Amino acid sequence: MGKTGSGKSYFLASLFLSLYLAGQPVTLIDPHGDLAQLVLAHLVAQGQLQTPDQRERLLYLDIPAAAAEQRYLPFNFLAQPYDDHAMAEHVTEAARRAWPELAHGAPTFENILKHSVVALRQAGLPLTRLSDLLTDTAFRNQILLTRVHDPQVIRFFRLRMDMWGRDAPLMKESTLNRADLLTLSPILRHALGHQDNVLDFRRLIDSGTSLIVNLSVASPDTRRLFGCLLTVGMETAALSRANLRAAGRRLRTPHVLMIDEFSQFMAQSEESLTRMLSETRKYKLFCVMAHQNWSQASDRLKGALQNVGIEAIFKAGRPDAEYSARLFGTVNTEAVKHVVADEAAEKRTHPTFYPLPEQWEHTTQEIQQLDVGEAFIRLPDDRLQRVHTPRLPDLPATSHGLDEIERYYLDRYFEQPQSESTVTTRPSIAGLSNVNIRRRSEGSKLRPRTGLIYAQSGHKRRI
């Protein structure tokens, strides 16, 4: 943790580069963009992205730069290699993170969302059709009749939702309010509404591919929801490694997940975050979480963060320094402040000890007075070290190589939506037995209502 200008971003960049150059796969999720661009610039300057093989080792996704060109990432989140009910849980967890108020309990919302996700998956439809599923009765009845095969899901819509009568709009409103955010933002509408998915998180971590995501989009809702889907996807991929046999478990590729402003994207309950940090570590996904101040973390998250292995505090403001002093500092109840000089009087008196508030104040001021790039590190054995973080070398003045790399990744992984009438084929999702996505005929009532789909591009790579 550290305030703006304390050197925290350069420390994260240095850590990413050190891990990457040592052959350790890393994923960086950056909601501001500066850190992602800094890391990419240094990788380019060090000649790490010159050859095709080097570029295959890294996936760089600049979401705002692509959106400025009306290009979008094919990110059909429902097209992940898990069963329908597992995907319903994953989407619900992402919703809890994106909208923290749901963490206190929203049974109706969760019930509707989980049944709807299963229905969409079995119907081969993306998450952006959620609103249509809930509001268009004819559309819902047709897919329930012809494409949904889970009797519990059919029973929920037939015998519960259809029986709400006049109360139906009120019962569904909370879900619809959030479902509309999936289609209101062009970035989410075109990414989540795509039939293809270039981000297979399990394949990404198993293959040792590194990922940098620039999420500095203008809309906070878009940034938060997109980031929550990414973090849930990475965590789920790590936990799915439990299906490996004992011999394969030794071959799990370690992966580091680095998240700036982590409180926007991580589990919002102390229990969930503690469980996530503990369980993902077992499957070799290690988290580096950064934030600017403690006000960004709720009391529940503060409790969960006591379970992390290593903590670092950079220069902080007074309130954060006071709170961190209690986490990083220690007091000596026998520290002597003053002893009388008169030996004869010494026997008749006792020494003056340092008051505990004064000792805590000393630690607080030390944190406030840290230089840029200087930090206190608390190690797993509770030892405290004062360190100077490495300085990054100066970058060359020219950005020709950087521009070329950015263009390479934009052209490779982002697509422009096209009119339905100009497309003859649609991309398919390979290797996903639980997802049945098929091309709709022109006369089908199940045609996507956005009027926008994507041309198939043979050069696109799926991760």
Automatic annotation (TrEMBL):
Gene3D superfamilies: P-loop containing nucleotide triphosphate hydrolases. InterPro entries: HerA_central, P-loop_NTPase, T4SS_component. Residues 2-39 form the Helicase HerA central domain. It holds the Pfam family DUF87. This is Helicase HerA central domain-containing protein. It comes from Streptomyces nymphaeiformis.
